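Human: Note token order:
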Amino acid sequence: MYKRWTQVFTEGITNQLLGCYVGSVGEAAVVLVRVYGRKTELFVDRKREMEMFRLLHAHGCGPQLYCSFQNGICYEFLRGKALDDPLLTQPAVYRLVAAEMGKLHSIKPKTASSLQPVLWSKLSNFLNLLQNSTPSDPPLQQSSQLELPSMNVLLKEMDNLRRHLTAVDSLIVLCHNDLLTKNIIYNSTEGVVKFIDYEYADFNYQAYDIGNHFNEYAGVNNVDYSLYPSQDLQWDWLTEYLHSLKSSSGVDAAVAEREVQELYIKVCKFSLVSEWSGAAAVVAPSSTGCDAVHCEELHNTQEEDAVLSLSKPGTPTKERLTQSRIRYAAARFSYYFEKKEEYFGMKLP
């Protein structure tokens, strides 16, 4: 007789992830079941997610989708462990991540139709939801004490970003769009990494996907931008990425220093929109259901514990989480405004 049992991996606001086992611990066959969170259909295209699952698996870049149901999916379990922040800075590991992203970005669409980046439509949809919502978290109304931008400032900044970045010639490729550390599974035995959680995967700007990943180096618990990857690390990462992208695309050519320099500048510029959208999503009223559009990492059990540790003991849990979200958003907005003029001023070679 085989033992059948389940394990809750995450129980967040966005999704609940369960592991279903048959057999003994360590040897059991496992499948994952993800149950969608309330109102996530407002900002996640579930039909598109299924298409991305199948496309990525067909190219060896994602787990196999077994089935879908009304409010969730069942898919393959990838053995390994989610990356932690220290591993991100180890060359042997971050080069694997860079190479896997290069492989992902080489995947071509099924049709030859003109590709449009999903970035601006997603952000516009998010802001529309935010504008039309009624905030339900009272502490969120007190966020002005931390100098969070108003809705008018958010709209103005999105216009500025769009105007500047649409003039930057970044490739449009198949992107993960949410490459947090917990969305990277590292199998040290086999020496490979795989990406998971493709809710936001779609065709988008190459430089956005990379810049969004680099922003995650600063962490969630006590956001610290001294941990942001150095220029030397970024150049090494980008060099490995370009090697993989060319190889996966069937291009037999060396990576020139000028290519790395050009991509580095584009990534710096697009990292700004990642910072802006990530911070804006965190301060979104919970009644919109879109408080995890970009910063889903705040809502799994482990990371909620981390951000809650920043709040004063004795504070009600919901209020403590809201206060922590506001501090997180304040840190990201601060870095965005600090770097905006510098990155906007960078000139491509």
About this structure: Strands lie at 4-11, 15-22, 29-36, 65-69, 72-76, 81-82, 172-175, 184-187, 192-195, 202-205. Residues 137-145, 285-317 have pLDDT under 50 and may be disordered. The radius of gyration is 20 Å. Residues 86 and 217 are 9 Å apart (CA to CA).
